[in-house]
Amino acid sequence: EDGASYHTSAETSHWRKVLNIYWLNWPAHSPDLNQIENVWPLWKRRFRRACRDPKQRPHAWEEVITLARQVWKALLWSQIYQ
């Protein structure tokens, strides 16, 4: 939860009780608990570098998606789980 009014409103609280949805006290920004927080900066850096390379630069949306997937697949598990 980010403290937004629609998360903390009386109506939301009511429906959480009705549906037995419990609020967890979870830090808003917790890279230790969410590995993707550690990966995004690395992925973005590599993706941008690839986009600057004339041989890899995408010119169509499909090429952007393909390049994004290639960069993702090139990440090592040891880099993801730092």
UniProtKB/TrEMBL annotation:
Recorded GO MF terms: nucleic acid binding
InterPro entries referenced in this protein's UniProt entry, alphabetically: RNaseH_sf (IPR036397), Tc1-like_DDE_dom (IPR038717)
Q: Name one Pfam family in it.
A: DDE_3
Q: Where is the Tc1-like transposase DDE domain?
A: 2-49
Q: What is this protein called?
A: Tc1-like transposase DDE domain-containing protein
The species this protein belongs to is: Tuber magnatum
